[in-house]
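Render this sequence as a predicted structure.
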Amino acid sequence: MGSIATIGDRVLDNVERVIVGKHQEVRLALVALLCRGHVLIEDVPGTGKTVLAKSIARSLGCTFRRIQFTPDLLPSDVTGLSIYNQKTQEFEFRPGPIMSQVVLADEINRATPKTQSALLECMDERQATIDGVTHQMPDPFLVIATQNPIEYEGTFALPEAQLDRFMLRIRLGYPALADELRVLDAQKVTHPLDDLEEVCTGDELRGLQAAVRDIYVDPVVASYIVRLVSSTRAHPDVYLGASPRGSISLYRASQALAGLLGRDYVIPDDVKALAEPALAHRVIIKTASTIHDVSSAHVVRELLDSTPIESARRTVGGPRETSPSAVAD
């Protein structure tokens, strides 16, 4: 798995020339990319959400389109539409901005539910059906959506079906004082994004995405993932727990993180590191519990502390032997 770690570090270092002091957050975005997943960045304006999406696109040599979501945005403005050509007397399909490899859905919660639903098929099935004709999304395909968590006027909350299609939810947060000084220094004359170069081709990325699937997950670790996700459905403060898609997302993300860290097998620490970004946005807290400041992130952290990890059995001749120390709680 050296190639995944090597190329991953190369992309990570390149993006961090622009996004300063957010190593873990950038790595999470790369994890989603390697898993063919999508990312929801939830943070206040000015923290680098748009710049992160542009930096990833330029580092990978991918096509990039930005969609500014507004209340008057129509579904056809996102997916495209068929226009009648009077010369040929035929309808021609004009693709929308979603037909790009890296798509930034900026302020996604400002669009109406009807427009938000235009992304459902694109994100899950990687295709868009317009006027009865199915059009495939480009490969690779990554949606990075942003929203402001503290602004509610003129917004439409994302429905559960939409949230469930995001593999990870990331919060960038404000930079540390030293990091903010580095940002000011880096932008004295020009923006570092202007000089960012491609460090990974599309073919290399597709190869990495295929290699991630081969990273070994011990049955003990897979059982831990399923029990952890299942426990969100039985928690007394939870109205709706994580879906099986949450289990799959956590499973795939753990494989990608292990590959980025140079391993060809997953350990429970990988699962624990990704549990909150992969599950918290899929968990809906009861109204009575929110009054007492119970959050979905708090529930996931509580379940991480209370869900035990089974002891591993060493298997002879299996894909890989997992040592007891690797799965110790």
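Summary. The domain at 215-327 is CATH 1.10.8.80 (Helicase, Ruva Protein; domain 3). The mean pLDDT is 87.
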